[in-house]
Write a structure and sequence with these properties.
It is a single chain. This protein is of the alpha/beta class. It has helices spanning about 5-20, 20-75, 80-90, 175-190, 225, 240-245, 255-260, 410-415, 425-440, 475-495, 515-520, 540-550; strands at about 105-110, 115-130, 140-150, 155-165, 200-205, 210, 220, 265, 285-290, 310, 325-330, 335-340, 360, 390, 405, 455-465, 500-505, 530. It is built from twelve helices and 18 strands. The strands form five sheets. A six-stranded mixed beta sheet has the order 15-5-4-16-17-18, with helices on both faces. A hairpin with a 6-residue loop joins β11 and β12. α4 packs parallel to α12.
Length: about 550
């Protein structure tokens, strides 16, 4: 081949080489892959650091909480916070990809400030060896974070509103409640590091609550219904009461169970030894017996505290007693007057049992005061509706009485031991008194005033094993629930003195539907209502509540 031909071929090959770009792609890719790999590797390294930081944050949060609890409970002193912080963190920090020096774990303590808030802040830092960024000159990445546990000198007041109705005698429910309630008192008492840290009230309830006979002379007791004649006898002109007009000593009893819900007694029904009587006794007393509620459901198992004194003849008269206490029928020698609760003369005194015979039970206040937390006042003539609490002579009056806010733990537990099941269910009256027991101003069992240098948390724990069955006016569940709904709504609206409400429904074997009114009454949506179907779960339910009310808040 000639030189010219060789040259031409070489020239052609050179031109093809110069124009070829296949090799350039590989070179460009090789050059570009370095930053791409570096960026991807950096993302991987940073994700590892974030995981280590998250693990550190969780460990610091737990460390701060544990330190604050130890300090609150007196397990450690302020001088031991730093050392204990290192111990807790070392056991809680589980991410081993990074290196955290024990010296980097620091804890600082801030005593109570002007708002009553105490803080512990725990910080830590570490570093993590990189896998990719080392190629860019970063062999390690630093990370760190902190956590603060902030708590007030928080003081707790807990109203324990506990069902004592007759159904609590079944399936071991009362025994389970008593054990769980006493355990709660024991646990809460451990938070009482100084006087006033914890107060507890006990509110046993059924249809009524028992405030105790020691309040017999209290001005906030309204005796109007306790002293009143049976409401069904207010209209003595009805056919059911026709026999009453002519009733005198020796006459047939003018009351029948079918027409009135009660029969005659030979003396005031609350008097020892009282017996039913088919005839009016020679004393002339016409005494109504225990009301069955047949005609007036709200009066089921209620005693009337008096008798009618019967006088007859032309001289018979009501004297100074008006129509609300006395009625006369006929004229001349056939005139008959019936005076309710007699008067103060020895001959008629037995017809008017004294207030001292009251057994301590009170029922709902007048509407709408039954749904409010207001001072009952002390005026005897406080108008209508009355703000005062109505005394009632209820045959099922509970033996366990209300205990105002107290830190006498054994006294509180003794009251729990005294609880005996009896009567129908009126959750609202118990809840109303639980709310009253938290008030520092509205009596009648006002709590001790709160100190401005402390943070206070108020709680109501309401346990009931049944649906509402009787209040002062009705045996209709829906009617009673309506009153309770209003009450619960008023508790929630009280932002000046906020109260957290927990409710428990004891519903053995799901015998009842889930209580809507108990669900609606809670003040926080998660975990505040519990329904248990076995009495053995009562203790767990109380422990769940304790966990919530004693939990310290992680502020940061």
């Amino acid at each position: 081949m000639s030189i010219t031909a060789i040259f031409n071929r070489l020239s052609t090959a050179a031109r093809r080489f110069a124009a070829a770009d296949q090799g350039n792609i590989a070179v460009i890719f090789a050059l570009a892959s370095v930053p791409i790999i570096t960026f991807v590797g950096a993302a991987i390294d940073y994700s590892r650091v974030n995981a280590a930081r998250s693990s550190m944050q969780a460990a610091l949060d737990s460390t701060a909480l544990m330190l604050s609890k130890d300090l609150t409970n007196g397990t450690i002193t302020t001088s031991q916070i730093q050392a204990q912080a290192k111990i807790y963190f070392a056991s809680l920090y589980t991410d081993k990809s990074g290196t955290v020096s024990p010296d980097s774990v620091q804890a600082s303590y801030t005593p109570k400030d002007s708002s009553g808030i105490t803080k512990i802040q725990v910080t830590a830092s570490g570093n993590l060896p990189t896998d990719f960024l080392r190629m860019a000159g970063y062999p390690t990445l630093d990370f760190g974070t902190s956590s603060t546990a902030a708590w007030g000198n928080t003081r707790m007041r807990v109203a324990m509103v506990l069902d004592n109705t007759g159904s609590m005698a079944q399936n071991g429910k009362m025994a389970a409640l008593q054990t769980a309630a006493k355990d709660m008192i024991d646990t809460l008492s451990t938070y009482n590091k100084q006087e006033g840290d914890v107060y507890i009230s006990i509110i046993p309830f059924a249809k009524d609550v028992n405030v105790g006979t020691g309040y017999v002379d209290a001005p906030w007791i309204n005796w109007a219904e306790w002293e009143a004649e049976p409401p069904i006898l207010n209209d003595k002109s009805t056919s059911a009461n026709a026999a009453f007009k002519t009733a005198v000593a020796g006459s047939d009893c003018p009351f029948t169970k079918n027409n009135h819900g009660f029969v005659c007694m030979d003396r005031p029904a609350t008097t020892s030894g009282a017996k039913t009587a088919s005839k009016i006794p020679s004393s002339g007393y016409i005494c109504p017996g225990l009301d069955s509620g047949r005609k007036l459901p709200g009066k089921t198992n209620i005693y009337y505290n008096g008798c009618y004194t019967t006088v007859s003849g032309a001289s018979a008269s009501c004297g100074s007693f008006g129509p609300n206490r006395c009625s006369c029928y006929g004229s001349g020698s056939s005139k008959i007057c019936h005076l309710w609760r007699g008067d103060d003369t020895p001959a008629t005194a037995a017809a008017r049992p004294a207030h001292s015979t009251w057994t301590g039970c009170v029922n709902d206040r007048d509407q709408d005061h039954d749904t409010e937390n207001i001072d009952p006042g002390s005026a005897v003539n406080d108008g209508t509706p009355s703000k005062r609490f109505y005394a009632e002579q209820w045959s099922d009056c509970l033996p366990a009485t209300i205990t105002p806010m107290s830190n006498q733990w054994q006294t509180l537990k003794n009251q729990i031991s005294a609880m005996t099941p009896s009567g129908n269910t009126n959750q609202a009256v118990g809840l109303a008194w639980g709310w009253q027991s938290l008030s520092t101003t509205n009596g009648p069992i006002a709590a001790k005033a709160k100190e401005s240098t402390y943070v206070y948390k108020d709680y109501i724990v309401l346990l009931s094993d049944g649906l509402n069955t009787q209040n002062r006016w009705s045996t209709s569940q829906s009617s009673i629930d309506t009153r309770q709904d209003i009450l619960c709504g008023n508790i929630k609206k009280d932002t000046t003195n906020p109260v957290t409400v927990f409710t428990i429904q004891v519903n053995i074997n799901n015998a009842d539907p889930k209580s809507q009114v108990l669900q609606d009454c809670v003040t926080t949506p998660n975990g505040s209502f519990q329904m248990i179907t076995d009495p053995n779960e009562t203790s767990t339910a109380f422990k769940n509540i304790l966990t919530q009310i004693s939990k310290l808040r992680v502020a940061k």
